[in-house]
Amino acid sequence: MISARMRRRTAALAVLVLLSLALSGCWDRVELADLDLVSGVAFDAVPNGGFRITASIVLPQNLTGAGGAGGAGGGGGGPAEAVVSATGATIGEAIAALGQGLPGHIFWGHTRVILIGEGLARRGVQPVLDFFLRSPETRLATDLLVVRGEAGPLLQLSPPFRVPGTDVLYEHLRRQREPRAFIYEVAQSIRTASGATLIPEVHVGPPAPGGSPGGGGSGGATAPPTLVFCGTGVLQRGRLTGWLNETQMRGAMWLLGTTRRATVELNSPRGTVTVAVDKVHIHRRAVRLAGGVPAVRIRIAAEGMVGEVDRGKVPLQDPQYLIQLSNILAASIRGEADAALAAARSEDVDFLQFGRLVAADQPALWNPVHSTWRQIFPTLRVVITVLAHVRYVGNLVRLS
Amino acid sequence: MRGTGPDMIGAVAVFVLFWVWERRNLAGWSTGERAAFWAAWAVTLAWSIAVEAHLRVPTLPGMTDHLFLPLAHALLRQHPDVYW
Amino acid sequence: MSPHAASGPEATDPSALTPLQIGVSTMAMIGVTAVAGLPTLLTAYAGQEGWISALIAVPAGLVPLVLLYDLDRRQPGLTLVQHARRALGPIGGLLLSLPLLMLLSSTTPLGAHQQADIVGMEALRRTPTVVVVGLFLLVPLYAARQGREVLARLTTLSVAVAIGALLLIGATSLRSVRGENLQPVFALGWVPLLQGAAPAAAWYAETAVLGLLLPFRATERRAAWAAAAAGLVIVGLQVSLVTAWDLSIFGPLADQMVFALFQVTRVSNLAEFLTHMDSILIIAWVAGEMARMGLWLYCLCLAFSQWLGLRDYRPLTLPVAAAVAIGACTWFQNASQFNAWVMRVWPFWGLALGIGSPLLVWLAVVLRGTGAGRRQARPAAGSARAACAGPGRT
Questions:
Q1: Cα(A291)–Cα(A285) distance, integer angstroms
Q2: At what angle do helices A4-21 and C129-146 cross, to 10 degrees?
Q3: N or C of chain C: less Cβ packing under 10 Å?
Q4: Distance of CA A265 to the CA centre of its chain
Q5: What is the ipTM of this complex?
Q6: For residue C342, what pLDDT is reported?
Q7: C40 vs C387: which has the higher pLDDT
Q8: A92 near B CB under 8 A
Q9: In this structure, how many other beta carbons lie within 10 angstroms of the beta carbon of residue A258?
Q10: Per-residue pLDDT for C380 more than 90?
Q11: Which of A183, A199, A201 is nearest to A235 (CA)?
Q12: Is the pLDDT of residue B19 over 80?
């Protein structure tokens, strides 16, 4: 005779077992092996308003010991990634076409970089942003880059330094030598009064000199491709309107307050030294001038160490010389900042986010001007103060 | 729960399962409790059948919108945030 | 599970709630859905000052607590429905309890719908909604049938898990936070702040439902009510913090992104290694929802059983849970209709019923003169006090 208590326990156990069947998922269950992991994706414009998507799909079975180059593997015996491409009138259509050629379910959750071709960037990146923001799979802190020319071919390259190859782009951006543009930040900029933001630019450079990379396949040496980060694109309401060269880009980073470190070559009367700036404090503030006119004050404090003496006999033991170097460093930073400011004014594009600064710090002044900010911005008074300090000379005072 | 035969079968199956669960307890309940139990199930099943048959069933927005939307239009307005 | 003594439903469940359990129950009942749904509403109405609206609205949740306190002082140990019956008799009590029953009947399926929307849209897109809702109801249903103590213990555990998960998500998204996105402060004026406070106030006014839990306290009245008030204040702070966090990360996008917390997980990462914190958030969500749904289901069934004069609420649990599932699945055609209803109608519906239900009962009790103020009255048959043993209850 089974007691009531035993019956209850049995029933409870049966319920728990039944419920646990649902833990692995039912309708939404997808096996890990059935996922096609996208590590990088490129979007290009095609005629008639369509899109071409090029995706780099990771091949996990080839990842261990694999080399990076397309057809050559290391110990893994196959390429670490496969690059596929498809076109469609909309992004959704292009993705559906892409999926038809793939065995599994496309998973966007591991996408590290999104490349936008120049043609599409000039047409507008909003459809790309819309897709990535709307989908719950994607990560919002995914880097966006613009490519001069077509973006798809860039994914076909496989630089040997990282597997998958798109990680080269990702790791470079992590070092923050260029302004980073995450999807959500670019989307935010569209909804601001200035509507502008910077997006890092990359293009394929000439092959690196020298022999083949380790793990090359049979046959002749193949020089590894190089990716060149040189400058920055300017997006206005999601459309590419121009480029900043390297000097302007560095100046923009100073004025935006996003510089964390920098390497600056300084020409002094006694020689040329390279200074590594690694302590940076940037303070931006909007102020109210007499007459109720807004202005922006930016204070840049940078401290660095002599990294290298390139030419000449520089008296690093002389404290006056270090002060002179500090002044030259300040002037260099000031020059870059001025170049960025001039570029912003000449293009009438507030990619330095001064409008947001005025709105945040001087809301009473912002109210009457926000609808005409684009006209007001070129005449906005900007006061830049740079305090630079070369404090250390490194472990060596002089070599000769 | 809209629309299909399998949903109806599922609903009936759930009801049968729960009736089996409660069957032993029913004996120990008072008349009022048993009446409330059956009445509540009757209402729930009737509601479920009405929904499945696409009959016009009261919904919360249907009952409240005409009362409160005019108030909402008058008192609650989204202001464009110009400070971005 | 067979009842019961003749003295009322509470005889089948003599358990009493400690102040800690009351506090976490308040947090679970209000905070789970508030933290999920309020940030987007607050930023839609009040822009980057939405986090301030979340704090301004807190007094709206204290009003029902004050009324419940006075009711308990006049006649200890009675639930809100029992106060209504005592004041106006069975028929009058029936009518007087209607606002509370409407609040419970509408809000329980609403909460289930919201949680099913979150899980269904972000995680389980192919799973039928009725299965998601059903799974969300099973454990709370079982816990509700076991009584207050089981519910309280489940809540204590769930709230701790939920808070731990939220803290982890907050810590791993810290580097995306930009304090300047919260500026300017107090630049929009009072009107947007008050409009943003309206839906939050309606949410906080759900403390009226505590009129079905607070009478079953294990300690003196002040400690119990202080715990409930503390729980409410913590919820207000949580909502404010989540809103501020969302704004500081997403800035002008914040009012366009649904389910703010989920969006924060999409920028969280731990050392560039753990970048998919979604499962952590779903843990917090499900844990909190289990507790919340159990409490609301319990209160709904208890209120109905007392309204009908039944000895025990348990016979109603299964059919009421099924009805909640039907309401959750069928009331709204799509997410936009739900969001629009919550944005425009809920501030009035929730506030009117949340404050109106204890207020009407309190007015009836005061005008009828039932209860003798500070003098303890003899417990009537079916009162919560009849079978609850507890030290020092006043």
A1: 18
A2: 150
A3: C
A4: 24
A5: 0.85
A6: 94
A7: C40
A8: no
A9: 15
A10: no
A11: A199
A12: no
DSSP string, A152-166: HHHHH---TTSSSTH
In the three-class reduction of DSSP (H, G, I as helix; E, B as strand; rest coil), residue A114 is classed as: strand
Distance from CA of B29 to the nearest CA of A (A): 18
Domain boundaries along the sequence of chain B = 8-75
Count of alpha carbons within 13 Å of A382, Cβ hemisphere only? 27
Length of chain C: 394
Residue to test with chain C: of B81, B83, B84, most C Cβ within 10 A:
B81
pLDDT of residue C200: 96
Determine the Cα–Cα distance for residues A389 and A205; give it in Å rounded to an integer. 35
Pick C252's closest partner by Cβ from A28, A136, A188. Answer: A188
Extract the tokens encoding A340: 């960025």
- Residue B55: is its pLDDT beyond 60? yes
Residues A208, A212, A215, A217, CA torsion sign: positive
Of C315, C337, C343, the CB nearest to B61: C337
DSSP code for A314: -
Rounded alpha-carbon distances, angstroms, from residue A48 to A41, A45, A53, A88, C323: 21, 9, 15, 10, 52
Residue type, A280: V
CA distance A163 to A112: 12
| Mean pLDDT on B8-31 | 74
Residue of A nearest to C124 (CA): A28
Over residues C233-262, the mean pLDDT reads: 93
| Domains in chain C with CATH codes | 20-368 (1.20.1740.10)
Distance between CA atoms of C209 and C97, rounded to whole angstroms? 12
Asked if the Cβ–Cβ distance from C252 to A22 is below 8 Å, we say no
Mean pLDDT of chain A: 85
- From A64-73, A350-359, C164-173, C225-234, the region with the lowest mean pLDDT: A64-73
Please give the average per-residue pLDDT across A171-198, as a whole number: 87
Place of tokens 């213990």: C153
Contact A363 C257 (CB under 8 A): no
pLDDT in tens, A18-38: 666 656 567 787 888 888 999
Cβ of C345 within 8 Å of Cβ of B65? The answer is yes
Phi-psi region at C79: left, alpha or beta (left = phi > 0; alpha = psi -120 to 50): beta
Q: Is residue B37 exposed (0-12), middle (13-18) or buried (19+ Cβ within 10 Å)?
A: buried
Q: Give the per-residue pLDDT at A160.
A: 60
Question: A392: which strand partners?
Answer: A305
Q: Which subunits have 3 or more CB–CB pairs within 8 Å of chain C?
A: A, B
Measured CA to CA, the distance from residue C80 to residue C77 in angstroms comes to 10
The whole-angstrom separation of Cα C375 and Cα A31 is 67
What domains, with CATH codes, occur in chain A? Answer: 32-61+78-211+223-244 (no CATH), 255-400 (3.30.300.210)
| Bridge partner list, A280 | A302
- Return the residue of C nearest to A361 by Cα: C184
Residue C77: in which H helix or E strand, if any?
none
Q: Report the residue count for chain A.
A: 400
Give the three-state DSSP class for A384.
strand
Interatomic CA distance for residues A259 and A281, integer angstroms: 9
Q: Residue C252 has what DSSP assignment?
A: G
Which class for B5: exposed (0-12), middle (13-18), buried (19 or more C-beta within 10 A)? Answer: exposed
pLDDT tens for A195-227 read: 899 999 998 887 766 654 444 444 445 566 677
Pairing of strands A113-117, A35-46: parallel
